[in-house]
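call fold(seq) -> tokens
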Amino acid sequence: MEILYAFLFVIIIFGSLGILYVYQFNKLMHSKTKIDQAEYLIDDALRCKYDLLTRVDTFLKKELGNKVYFKDLDSIKDESISNFDLDRKIKEYVNTLMQIKVDYEKLSTNKDFKDLLNENKKLDEKLQSAKMYYNKYTGEMNDLVRAFPSNVVARMHGIGIKTFFDGKNMEDEIVDDFKL
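ret:
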């Protein structure tokens, strides 16, 4: 009879551990899925911004002459860079666009130019919200990877700490990575 109780006790312990494992694994996978969705949204918004900038470049060449305003814009698509680096490069081009807007006042009255700027603003909002979504679930996943017992499950499946979209690694020794 004692052997039966011991056997039931072992089954209950292993069953509880199995349920705990499945629960922690599902929490990790939920966060990973949300991060993947956010990466898709960021990727889509960056592609749209790139397409917008190529349209702006064509528009500026037509309106202001064949001067090159966005140097190396075409070569970005051929590079193998992360979304974070692509975002930084696109920001540089958008800053150039804003400077062109200031320098050429006649563009301020052009309806097509205003439409392009409005589209840029909408894409900025979409991109910003996707980054916030990504960072939220990256933070959740990093918390799970650091906390017991989910850290055991994460190690078993090779899941580690992810960096936030801004590319800053809070775990490293580099303190000057807070650049704009």
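The chain has a mean pLDDT of 86.
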